[in-house]
Every structure is written in structure tokens, then in C-alpha cells.
Amino acid sequence: MRIDILTALPGIVTGPLEQSILKRAARKELIDIRVHDLRTYASGKHRKVDDYPYGGGAGMVLKPEPIFHCVESIREESKKSGSRIDEVVYLTPDGQVLTQGVATELSLLNHVVLLAGHYKGVDQRVRDVLVTREISIGDYVLSGGELPALVVVDAMVRLLPGVLGNAESSFSDSFQNGLLDAPNYTRPATFRGMDVPDVLRSGDHERVAEWREEQQLKQTQIRRPDLLEGGSVDVD
Questions:
Q1: Residue 203: in which H helix or E strand, if any?
Q2: CA atoms of 169 and 83, how far apart (whole Å)
Q3: Total Cβ atoms within 10 A of residue 68
């Protein structure tokens, strides 16, 4: 899977990409993540990527030229290699809210471009012509789209075959089946008078599966009843 991240502040995203699961996935050549500094594609002596908004108002807006030039460069390179860009995703507060289902959809693609807005966002013409999907990671505003882009990358990549050490790990995550995860325990069996539930130490896989399913329902009912049809479920 190839992922291109377009940003005016590449330093924000490069560090996390060199850690943990993302680093291991890149070493295994399961992903190819490329960070593009929009200033490289800007014109003029000062390589300016933003300007004041028409109509007045506070804040700055990312200019269309460097974004168009960058996406067109990536698109041309993809054509030469016999592939194409599947989605150009713009990270924005007014986009589709990121869910596990959305992450799963994206993980099935071959080439995704992530555009990180900044300041007051991007020129609307970029959204009208280049962007094919808009995603938000929640109902709040950040200084830019760099951190949301990293969230999307991590959510996608961990679902790719071979990325996680245990192939079944991602399938038991919260939201994967519409429910929150069950409580998890590890050694020691007793810590400061608190014991791991007997069922988890029983060796009876069927009982363990039943316990986890029951706990998933309970956790979801208590913490996120909105995820359950009708808002509640009988788990007694």
C-alpha cells in the first residue's frame, strides 16, 4: 500500500512514521509512505504556500497551486508505474467522521493521498477538483490536519495483512464487530489482592469466548449505548 501525505509542516508527521508498527510495516515493505513538503511545489522566491482569504477575516488559507502541482506530480508518477491514486483524502473538521468501518474501507485500497490542511484550511477549488473524500477524526478543531492524517494512517495500516504480529489481533479490536473490547488481563494472576477472572485461566476456550462476548456487550451498554441498536441490550 502506498500512502502520500501532503503537508506544509512535514516535521510534524515524519517522527511518528519511524516508530512502532508503522516502522515495522515499512521495513517489511508492506507500506510505502511518502511525505511531501508543499513548499517544494510552491513558486516564488519565498515558496509561499498560504495567503489571506478573499472577503477578509482572520487566518490564512493554503493556496491551490502547490497542492495541485503536488497531486499532479504524484498522479503522473503513478501512471508511469502502471497504477493510479484511489483516493485523495482531505482531513477537515467538516468531513465524514472516521470510524472503524471507514478505516477498513481505506485499508483495502492500493494508493491513498492524504492532504493535511492548516491555518484556515485549503482553497475551496482544491476540494472541488482534487479531493475525492473528506474525513474528520472528531467534532473538534486542531491547528492542522497533520495529526489527523497520522491517525488515519495508523488506523489503516494496522489492518493490512502481515502488519500485526498476530493476524487475529485487529479482528478483536473495539468497534471491529460494532462493540467495545472486553477487559484484558495479563500476568501476574494476582496483583495487590486483585485476581484475574477464573474463566480466563480455565483453559476452556468456549467459556472464554462466551465471557468475552458478554463483557463486550456490557462494556458497550455502559460506555457507548449509542452503538447498540435501540440504545440498549439485555445482557443479564
A1: none
A2: 30
A3: 16
Alpha carbons 173 and 212: distance in angstroms, whole number: 12
Q: Which residue has the cell 471507514?
A: 102
pLDDT of residue 219: 95
Cell of 133: 473524500
| pLDDT for the residue numbered 144 | 94
Gap between the Cα atoms of 119 and 131, Å rounded: 18
pTM, entire model: 0.85
229 or 174: which carries more pLDDT confidence?
Answer: 229
- In the structure, how many helices (H) and strands (E) does the chain have? 7, 9
CB neighbour list of residue 103: distance below 8 Å, 6 or more residues apart: 152, 155, 156, 159
Identify the pLDDT of residue 177.
Answer: 74
Backbone angles phi, psi at 106, to 5 degrees: -65, -35
Q: Is the dihedral of CA 162, 3, 93, 230 positive or negative?
A: negative
Q: 50 — phi, psi (to 5°)? A: -135, 165
The phi, psi pair for 51, rounded to 5°, reads -160, 170
